[in-house]
């Protein structure tokens, strides 16, 4: 059975492990640098990114995490995990936070506002649907979510989100209420891939749709086989839109 590491410092690591289990894959909690030597792929979950960074620093995890990424091993960051993997982050608290890096992108740490601005949105995901089947959209759960503002030439954009005309890019303030007649003028990136690194600004682990987890498992299997196109069998699940609103959970960023 395949084993996937899930960074378990804080945040939604249990939800990721449960999603992996639904696909017949074992997820193991990772808290110490030496545990990274026993896995070949890693999920960095959503949570409070500053708290996660402080805990990672306390456990001296950053050097080991950077080495894990630099070795080309598959890593998926969701929400706060996306911030960890970004080469650059803006909108941070005073003093900022340490990053693992690897994804050639700039992330706005708290682009969509505070906890009360959390929301769900149907995202167009043509690449995911092409590889994993199912609907052309995915129920994105955004909880104090970041967004990708810029990407490098090697980064593939997998999903974006239309920004209302009254939303100011690069603003760290809460999202303004969109008027009914407002016309979206720009889009912000919410899912990217660069080689064996995957990043999503939303929380797939809080939905019944496991296609992002299946997508990542195939990345991980491809790494083990020396190719990113190898198919790995996973058990089927109902991909219907069974949304699970979890906005009241304070652990997510």
UniProtKB/TrEMBL annotation:
Gene3D superfamilies the record matches: 3.40.50.880
InterPro entries named among the record's database cross-references: Class_I_gatase-like, PdxT/SNO, PdxT/SNO_CS
GO MF annotation list: glutaminase activity; lyase activity
Listed GO biological process terms: pyridoxal phosphate biosynthetic process
This protein's UniProt keywords: Glutamine amidotransferase, Hydrolase, Lyase
Active-site residue numbers: 79, 203, 205
Binding-site residues, L-glutamine: 47-49, 109, 143-144
Pfam family membership, one: SNO
Keyword Lyase among record annotations: yes
EC number: 3.5.1.2
Catalytic activity annotation: L-glutamine + H2O = L-glutamate + NH4(+)
Family: Belongs to the glutaminase PdxT/SNO family.
PANTHER family to which the protein is assigned, alphabetical: PYRIDOXAL 5'-PHOSPHATE SYNTHASE SUBUNIT SNO, PYRIDOXAL 5'-PHOSPHATE SYNTHASE SUBUNIT SNO1-RELATED
Protein name, as recorded: glutaminase
Originating species: Theobroma cacao
Upper taxonomic lineage: Eukaryota, Viridiplantae, Streptophyta, Embryophyta, Tracheophyta
Gene: LOC18590063
């Amino acid at each position: 059975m395949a084993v996937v590491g899930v960074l378990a410092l804080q945040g939604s690591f249990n939800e990721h492990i449960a999603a992996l289990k639904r696909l017949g894959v074992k997820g193991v909690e990772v808290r110490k640098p030496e545990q990274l030597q026993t896995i070949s792929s890693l999920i960095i979950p959503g949570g409070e990114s500053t708290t996660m960074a402080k805990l990672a620093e306390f456990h001296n995890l950053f050097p080991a995490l950077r080495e894990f990424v630099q070795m080309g091993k598959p890593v998926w960051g969701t929400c706060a995990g996306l911030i960890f993997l970004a080469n650059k982050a803006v909108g941070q608290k005073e003093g900022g936070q340490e990053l693992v890096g690897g994804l050639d992108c700039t992330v706005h740490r708290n682009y969509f506002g505070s906890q009360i601005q959390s929301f769900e949105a149907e995202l167009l995901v043509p690449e995911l649907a092409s590889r994993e089947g199912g609907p052309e959209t995915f129920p994105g759960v955004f909880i104090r979510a970041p967004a990708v503002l810029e990407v490098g030439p090697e980064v593939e954009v997998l999903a974006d989100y239309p920004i209302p005309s009254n939303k100011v890019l690069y603003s760290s303030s809460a999202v303004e209420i969109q008027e009914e007649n407002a016309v979206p003028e720009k889009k912000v990136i919410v899912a990217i891939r660069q080689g064996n690194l995957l990043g999503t600004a939303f929380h797939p682990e809080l939905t019944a749709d496991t296609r992002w987890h299946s997508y990542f498992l195939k990345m991980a299997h491809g790494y083990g086989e020396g190719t990113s196109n190898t198919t790995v069998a996973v058990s089927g699940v109902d991909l219907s839109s069974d949304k699970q609103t979890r906005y009241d959970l304070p652990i997510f960023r």
